[in-house]
Design brief:
By secondary structure, this protein is an all-alpha fold. The protein has helices spanning 2-13, 21-28, 32-42, 45-95, 129-155, 179-195, 227-258, 262-265. Residues 1-56 and 63-78 have low confidence and may be disordered.
Length: 274
């Protein structure tokens, strides 16, 4: 279109070879009729065709430019906008504080020498704080129950409550009334405490799991203690609970295998009565 416009424009403004200037001037002296004949001969079909082609080509070029400019403007605007958005995102990332490190179970309470972080089965995963919370709650409560059970397995053959004198001294105590009634009552009381006063919420701090205030710590052993003293007491409780779980399991297995209760397993045949 641009080539056609240039060609037509040039032809429109170049005089025709069939109408010399001298002839036009000479004919003009002979009158207006001669002038009209001379002009008709000068502006021939070829000159009109060239002028028309030039105007059409110029219009086509203008239309192409008018259509092309917005497209180029939009094409140039898109990369500029994308660059601006990318720059803003990078600036916000640079200004944002660094992300906290993932949860590490090996840095929690209960990791003490000589075993350190002992988890051969891989229950505690790095970054899984929710799973660790459930395991720590279970470990704390099972450890406390096991400490009571291991002591009770040794004391129960020597001390019996009134009305329980005929109850067997050992694991079979809950199979015979009134031992059965005592066992059911114990389960109900523990269940109510588990669902009520001695429950750990999902938003409780990990170091505070198992801390139920005065109702769970009547001796107030860690009240007013420093952080170091608190960690020492909590590590002792966790380690003693772990040992008690193993001890209680050993007492149960040994009694099932030998028929001897916890006190008889220590070598005492004659039970002191209190």
């Amino acid at each position: 279109a641009a080539g056609i416009a240039l060609y037509g424009g040039c032809q429109a403004f170049v005089p025709s070879a069939r109408a010399p200037t001298e002839n036009a001037q000479f004919s003009a002296l002979r009158g207006s009729g001669a002038v009209r004949e001379q002009l008709a001969a000068t502006v021939g079909p070829s000159s009109l065709t060239s002028g028309l082609v030039g105007m059409l080509g110029a219009g086509a070029v203008g239309a192409a430019l008018a259509v092309g400019k917005p497209g180029r403007s939009r094409a140039m605007a898109v990369p500029c906008y994308a660059t601006a958005v990318t720059g803003a995102a990078k600036a916000s990332e640079a200004d944002a504080p660094p992300a906290p490190p993932p949860f590490d179970p090996s840095k929690q309470l209960g990791v003490t020498a000589p075993m350190g972080f002992f988890d051969p089965a891989g229950f505690c995963k790095v970054g899984d704080e929710k799973g660790f919370r459930k395991l720590r709650i279970a470990e704390m409560k099972h450890g406390r129950v096991a400490m009571l059970a291991s002591v009770g397995a040794v004391i129960q053959p020597m001390i019996q409550l009134p009305g329980f004198e005929k109850v067997p001294k050992g694991l079979s105590a809950f199979l015979y009334p009134p031992g059965t009634y005592g066992f059911v009552s114990l389960v109900l009381v523990c269940g109510a405490a588990e669902l009520g006063a001695f429950s750990d919420g999902p938003n409780k701090d990990l170091d505070s799991i198992g801390d139920y205030g005065a109702k769970g710590n009547p001796l107030q052993l860690t009240v007013g203690a420093t952080r170091e003293e608190f960690e020492t007491m909590r590590n002792r409780e966790l380690n003693n609970g772990r040992a008690a779980m193993i001890a209680t399991l050993g007492i149960i297995v040994a009694e099932l295998a030998t028929g001897k209760n916890g006190l008889e397993q220590l070598g005492y045949i004659q039970f002191p009565q209190f």
